[in-house]
Task: inverse folding
């Protein structure tokens, strides 16, 4: 044994217990190499970076409470007579699923709390993912190298919707049963295979005796299993790519400025888990959610008014509500367009936002890595597209609650439905145009601020009587921050004749790309940021604002 | 599209050439990155008494959390699970749920608040810069990987031995079919089951609420009655499946108010029976407006005119509600004169 090896052995042998355990683990798992890269990993600070954490923590809370609920829930549709402690339902026929949910709510101490935490956390999880996705979209955080992580996040959102849907269908109550019936009706509308799909999913005619058990395995095993894998991959990529940051003094595309994981983010992010959990527990203590005992067990011939899905399914509900009832009958078959078109639009609306990063990178042709976030105003066309998408989403959400809008605001249900029908098309166009104008206006304001300084609100009277407002020049930090963003030049169609005079055919895709590029970056579609020359020219004339 | 297609000048210039945290103010470029601003000390960094105060706040939060957990356990043990209390402004709620939720919430929140306060006031808040490195591998690594792959591919001879390649892909493509086959028994084939209901000639209409066969005189003008076929009981194995197709909605109109000729023919003394299952996506219809004879599905607001063959007058439904032909049997009870002539409920491909 060499001396060096001896020394290492000795120093390891005498180390304190914690170090010795770490040494032991390192010899088997190589944890030191892992820790070297990650223990003091730098995370930048911005409130919006917290949104993703809300999602992660609510997902963990859902898993914890969900495991607890499986200990008491019976995923069975066998009809039983209720004999539990909730008096109004005594003696009623109901499925075992509903019966066991009542048992959790009334006879298991804390069962109601866990049920309510589980359901509230699910709503917050989906809302968190939606807002987190918007944060990523509007700041351009989806650009290279993060496109794949954008897709992972998108898949998490979509799978989260279906996990939520299968979850709230499990108690087999009147409200969720109505939702399942809607789903069955939608599946029936699929041309050619619709009835078969429905019979395979429900084990025969609706409602059958199987769907609770089948939804159960989808809800607790299949979908969360995939989601857990995706979430781990999502986080690994966040670590691997390092976090994005906003432009500012000392912050560049080649660095990441912030505070280290150990100890600051360990404490902040770890503490944030408890904050999220604590807030959700307090909500579950005071805010009732899905009171299935008041709704009653599912009966195929009963329904209540104001039936609404959980919020994240609301836009699918809206699509089906505002669609006119088109049906085409031919050769003994029925094409149920009134239901099938919404069923197709549902994934298409979602896909529109999912593929956007690839469209933008094709238009810009930019192959570089981007780690500095855009301020939404500095990408007017992207921001306008995003707002247009949110507008479609929100208008269909209004459509999904058209009955509630009508009853709460004393409107005609027909008028609300017609509003949604029209503004499904018109709304995003208006939103796009207005957003773009606002972005350009904000860009102009930034430009003015850089060139002329900040308006101080101080009015000065000059000796000859003229009034001027004193402008205070910006600091170099502010100047840098306001001018740090990239600005693309619109693409042009290259020379159509080569040096030998041979004409080249311009492909339609290239034409489209040039057109789009001009719509993104052409004149009037972005405000050029001030150049150093412009700045010098204006600031050299001292005394003038 | 490759990056060669974009002229270099169309891409914006790189903003930062130098990396490294602290730059120097640039005389040439007023927009240059001035580098990280100097660290500003917090009061806790310079005043030990302030730091002590922070320490006490953190410790207090952690202590409150411990007390709240004790409170949780005490609530669990002492509060009966059926006790309700009035809490302003929420109303009457379960005392146990309220106590458990709040104590758990406080216990968790205080741990989080303590940790965050600790991090914000006592841990170092000096901003540090980490360098980023391009994700793309260096050219020589790329070349090595490509060469390795080509070598491996060559050694496998997959490209050369076409027979192996073809049969292997064939086998891999076929083997999932077994898995697909295994899904076949998830359910029976639909056959014509969506076309038939329990209704048949001579089947009496039984009031859903009273479970008694209906007589015409039980149905008043302007009322809405729900009915099921005689013999279908709540305890039957297939109760829900059969009711999902057979559920009936009965109203009585003035015969001269019935606009549709067939509807009039299929009615009895102004009593008409329609399927209760909406033709849109299958919700039970249950809102009846007796002045206009409209029924509205509360799920998606499809509206049908019961005085005019139950045609759709608003909403997303695609066709009228099927009508059941009814009459009166020798004992004076309402009876069906046959099954529905068309499938009830949502439309489907084979409906025609």
Result:
């Amino acid at each position: 044994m060499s001396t060096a090896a001896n020394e290492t052995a000795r120093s390891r042998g005498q180390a304190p217990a914690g170090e010795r355990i770490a040494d032991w683990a390192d010899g088997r798992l190589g944890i030191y190499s892992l820790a070297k890269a990650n223990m003091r990993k730098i995370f930048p600070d911005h409130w919006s970076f917290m949104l993703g954490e809300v999602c992660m923590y609510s997902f963990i809370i859902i898993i914890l409470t969900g495991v607890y609920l499986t200990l008491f829930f019976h995923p069975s549709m066998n009809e039983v007579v209720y004999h539990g402690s909730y008096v109004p339902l005594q003696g009623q026929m109901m499925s075992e699923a509903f019966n066991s949910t009542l048992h959790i709510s009334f006879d298991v101490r804390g069962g109601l709390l866990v049920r309510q935490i589980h359901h509230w956390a699910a709503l917050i999880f989906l809302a968190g993912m939606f807002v987190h996705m918007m944060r990523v979209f509007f700041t351009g955080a989806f650009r290279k190298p993060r496109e794949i992580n954008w897709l992972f996040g998108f898949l998490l959102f979509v799978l989260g919707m279906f996990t939520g849907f299968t979850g709230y269908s499990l108690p087999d109550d009147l409200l969720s049963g109505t939702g399942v019936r809607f789903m069955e009706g939608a599946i029936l509308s699929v041309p050619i295979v619709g009835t078969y799909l429905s019979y395979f999913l429900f084990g025969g005619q609706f409602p059958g005796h199987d769907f609770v058990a089948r939804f159960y395995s989808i809800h607790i095993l299949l979908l969360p299993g995939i989601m857990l894998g995706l979430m781990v991959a999502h986080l690994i990529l966040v670590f691997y790519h390092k976090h994005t940051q906003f432009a500012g003094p000392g912050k560049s595309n080649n660095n990441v400025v912030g505070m280290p994981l150990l100890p600051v983010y360990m404490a902040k992010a770890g503490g944030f888990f408890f904050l999220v959990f604590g807030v959700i527990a307090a909500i579950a203590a005071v805010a009732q959610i899905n009171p299935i005992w008041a709704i009653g067990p599912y009966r195929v011939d009963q329904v209540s008014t104001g039936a609404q899905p959980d919020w994240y399914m609301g836009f699918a509900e809206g699509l089906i509500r505002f669609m006119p009832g088109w049906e085409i009958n031919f050769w003994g078959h029925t094409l149920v367009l009134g239901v099938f078109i919404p069923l197709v639009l549902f994934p298409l609306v979602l896909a529109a936002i999912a593929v956007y990063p690839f469209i933008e990178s094709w238009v810009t042709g930019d192959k570089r890595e981007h780690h500095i976030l855009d301020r939404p105003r500095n990408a007017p066309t992207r921001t306008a597209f995003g707002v247009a998408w949110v507008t479609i989403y929100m208008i269909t959400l209004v459509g999904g609650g058209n009955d509630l809008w009508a009853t709460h605001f004393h409107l005609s249900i027909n008028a609300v439905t017609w509003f949604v029908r029209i503004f499904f098309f018109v709304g995003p166009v208006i939103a796009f145009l207005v957003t773009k104008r606002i972005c350009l206006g904000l860009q102009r304001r930034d430009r003015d601020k850089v060139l002329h300084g900040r308006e101080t609100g101080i009015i000065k009277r000059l000796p000859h009587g003229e009034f001027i407002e004193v402008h205070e020049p910006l600091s170099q930090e502010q100047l840098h921050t306001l001018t740090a963003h990239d600005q693309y030049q619109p693409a042009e169609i290259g020379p159509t004749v080569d040096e030998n005079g041979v004409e080249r055919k311009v492909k339609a895709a290239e034409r489209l790309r040039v057109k789009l590029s001009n719509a993104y970056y052409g004149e009037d579609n972005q405000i050029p940021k001030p150049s150093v020359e412009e700045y010098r020219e204006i600031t050299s004339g001292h005394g003038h604002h | 599209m490759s990056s060669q297609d974009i002229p270099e000048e169309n891409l914006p210039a790189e903003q930062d050439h130098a990396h490294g945290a602290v730059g120097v103010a640039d005389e040439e470029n007023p927009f240059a990155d001035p580098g990280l601003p100097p660290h500003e000390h917090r009061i806790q960094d310079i005043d030990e008494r302030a730091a002590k105060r922070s320490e006490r706040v953190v410790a207090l939060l952690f202590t409150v959390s411990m007390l709240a957990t004790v409170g949780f356990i005490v609530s669990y043990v002492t509060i009966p699970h059926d006790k309700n209390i009035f809490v302003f402004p929420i109303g009457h709620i379960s005392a146990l749920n309220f106590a458990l939720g709040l104590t758990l919430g406080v216990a968790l929140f205080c741990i989080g608040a303590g940790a965050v306060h600790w991090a914000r006031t006592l841990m170092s808040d000096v901003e540090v810069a980490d360098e980023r490195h391009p994700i793309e591998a260096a050219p020589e690594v790329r070349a090595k990987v490509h060469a390795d792959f080509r070598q491996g591919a060559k050694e496998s001879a997959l490209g050369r031995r076409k027979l192996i390649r073809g049969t292997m892909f064939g086998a891999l493509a076929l083997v999932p079919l077994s898995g697909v086959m295994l899904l076949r028994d998830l359910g029976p084939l639909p056959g014509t089951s969506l076309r038939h209901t329990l209704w048949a000639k001579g089947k009496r209409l039984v009031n859903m609420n009273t479970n008694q066969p209906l007589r015409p005189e039980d149905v008043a003008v302007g009322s809405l009655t729900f009915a099921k076929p005689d013999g279908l009981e709540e305890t039957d194995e297939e109760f829900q499946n059969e009711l999902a197709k057979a559920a009936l909605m009965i109203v009585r109109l003035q015969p001269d108010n019935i606009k549709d000729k067939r509807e009039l023919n299929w009615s009895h003394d102004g009593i008409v029976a329609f399927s209760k299952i909406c033709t849109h996506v299958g919700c039970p219809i249950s809102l009846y407006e007796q002045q206009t004879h409209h029924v509205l599905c509360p799920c998606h607001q499809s509206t049908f005119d019961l005085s005019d063959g139950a045609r759709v007058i608003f909403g997303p439904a695609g066709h009228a509600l099927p009508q059941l032909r009814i009459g009166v049997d020798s004992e004076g009870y309402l009876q069906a004169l046959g099954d529905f002539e068309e499938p009830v409920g949502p439309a489907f491909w084979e409906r025609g």
Remarks:
- Chain B is about 30% helix and 15% strand.
